[in-house]
Specification:
The protein contains 17 helices and 18 strands. With 566 residues, it is of the alpha+beta class. The strands form seven sheets. The chain has a six-stranded antiparallel beta barrel with strand order 7-8-9-10-11-12. The two termini are 47 Å apart.
């Protein structure tokens, strides 16, 4: 297939505005139909879809940092429990982090707008390219089905309740043609069924190797995404059937980067065998301060205001040699000779609605040689080591505060740089492609997730042996020692196999946009009781706020129903 240079998202927006408009006044620009006279035109359209996922676009007066991938990862990850935002920011990401979304925010509107542009563009290809005319034509057609499915899946995850919570509830607009004369929301079940049908179709059309790198989907990309969707639907038998078919008798370890190469995986995701789909960026497409990584890292540039959360760090540090910790989380140690403690301020007003900024004090070893202590205002405080009888989110240290005698989780570490008393634990999963600290090709689907989908499906069915088998594949790659492996007779304090899988998913897929749906699809609540400028509370899985509002720019024109709670 001839490699067509991508058309920028701005150019495509002008070309297709008249045809795919959901919520904007039609323009008189060139129709997309003109581009679809031959296969090269179809390739031009499909490549434009990829461009629209990463190019900056102007929406309601905003352009800088206004990209699909940036908003998608932030809106999926920040409402979960893996990250702490060190202070309120004017960026709309704060509203996502604090569950304070409104219908006129740029991230809400841009994400919806661009997703449906990509869906429309995919539909133009589906309606035009003749199936079976050539292998390359089928690849393009398969990519169009894959992209249509991916966008609908994203919209369902962000703007509707999980399937397992309320499949009969109102979902999103389902677009399967370029006829946009009617705009209405289907049910959650109808939306998921359409995603399944599109991915099944895509799998029959896509080549085994796609177009040769992770920036384009292949057959296993469609099947891998299908396994995720089946998991969200509670279709465990279908997850098992799909993934075991993909593995072909392997335990999956041959699909992964090795322990030696995984530390550089995210910087080289485009060409890695582990990648099933990423949003490919070139060195010329770095976004600098406007990149995804800029909020997670300051290395010569970047804001560096969002850090790994305290409970996630505690989970990693059960096995500090874990390469997922040592490679992608970078503590900013300031002085190796001094020890400090950090814990949420128990005197914060309205703790259930206000953010909990941490306090920091220098500590010394207590007389017992195990615990730590410090003196403040003439009072001595002891930070005690916690025995991990229950490993589920158990903290290593705790402090008892005199006000009410309440015990708080604490973090003891060497003296670190901090921002507003938040220890700086930078995250690098979106950095260092081509050596650029602000450049990456964000990974939307990889083999490690697919293997964990299989483990979770087995856990749902109560098949501990198989669930543990695939969890251990991931742990072994992470460099966890033999004594840290699970078995049916050694659960390391866990009593529920699903808890084992959920924690392993958290360790492996942290910051990649999975955690929010992992929790809520299992009808679990999100425990956000850790330092950060978010409400210090537990978000219940059936709370209306776990879904985002339909953008005002959409419902005010099309008249579709707004989500409850907004």
């Amino acid at each position: 297939m001839k490699n067509i240079i991508k058309l920028s998202a701005l150019a495509f927006a002008a070309i297709i505005m008249a045809s795919c408009n959901l919520d904007y006044t039609p323009s008189d620009e060139l129709s997309a139909d003109v581009l679809l006279k031959d296969q090269e035109g179809a390739a031009y359209i499909v490549d434009g879809c990829y461009a629209m996922l990463k190019d900056e676009v102007e929406f309601i007066g905003y352009a800088s940092g206004n990209t699909y991938v940036r908003h998608y990862y932030q809106m999926q990850e920040l409402p979960a429990d893996n990250m702490s935002l060190a202070g309120v920011t004017t960026d709309d990401l704060y509203q996502a982090y604090a569950y304070k979304m409104t219908d006129n925010l740029k991230n809400v509107g841009t994400l919806w707008w661009l997703a449906y542009k990509v869906i429309y563009m995919s539909n133009t290809v589906i309606e035009t390219v003749k199936e079976g005319s050539s292998v390359d034509a089928d690849q393009l057609l398969g990519e169009a089905y894959f992209l249509r499915a991916l966008m609908h899946q994203h919209m369902l995850a962000l703007f509707a309740k999980p399937y397992t919570v309320n499949k009969a509830g109102i979902g999103v607009v389902i677009r399967t043609s370029t006829n946009t004369s009617e705009t209405k929301r289907g049910t959650v079940e109808e939306g998921y069924n359409q995603v399944v049908a599109d991915l099944q179709k895509a799998a029959t059309l896509l080549k085994e190797n796609g177009r040769g790198n992770g920036g384009y989907p292949c057959k296993n990309s469609a099947l891998g995404l299908l396994s995720r969707v089946y998991l969200y639907m509670g279709e465990d038998d279908k997850v098992i059937e799909t993934v075991t078919g993909m593995l072909g008798g392997s335990d999956g370890s041959d699909k992964l980067e090795s322990t030696a190469t995984f530390p550089t995986y995210f910087a080289n995701a485009i060409n890695s065998k582990e990648t099933l789909f990423c949003v490919a960026h070139t060195a010329l497409e770095t976004k600098g301060q406007s990149s995804i990584g800029s909020m997670y890292l300051n290395d010569g540039m970047g804001w560096g205001e969002i850090y790994a959360s305290q409970p996630l760090l505690d989970l990693y540090e059960r096995y500090p040699m874990d390469i997922r910790y040592t490679s992608f989380i970078v503590p900013q140690i300031f002085d190796e000779t001094k020890m400090f403690v950090s814990f949420a301020d128990p005197a914060t007003p309205e703790p259930l609605s206000a953010g909990m900024a941490p306090l920091i004090f220098e500590v010394k070893k207590a007389a017992d040689g195990v615990n730590y202590e410090f003196t403040e205002d003439g009072k001595k405080y002891t930070i005690k080591s916690v025995a991990r009888t229950n490993p589920q989110y158990q903290n290593e240290w705790e402090i008892t505060y005199p006000q009410g005698g309440k015990t708080w989780p604490a973090r003891v570490t060497k003296q670190m740089k901090n921002r507003q008393n938040y220890f700086q634990y930078y995250v690098t999963k979106f950095s260092y492609q081509d050596g650029d600290p602000m450049l990456s090709s964000p990974v939307m689907l990889r083999w490690a997730e697919v293997i964990l989908n299989l483990a979770e499906a087995y856990a749902h069915k109560g098949d501990n042996g198989n669930a543990i088998k695939y969890v251990n594949v991931i742990r072994n790659r992470a460099g966890i020692p033999a004594e840290g492996m699970f078995s049916t007779s050694q659960m390391h304090g866990y009593t529920n196999i699903l808890d084992v899988v959920m924690d392993e998913r958290r360790l492996e897929l942290a910051f990649e946009g999975d955690r929010r749906m992992d929790v809520y699809s299992n009808k679990l609540n999100m425990d956000r009781q850790f330092p950060g400028c978010h409400p210090y509370t537990v978000m219940e899985y059936n709370n209306d706020k776990i879904q985002n509002p339909i953008p005002q720019s959409e419902y005010s024109v099309s008249g579709i129903e707004q989500n409850p709670g907004y």
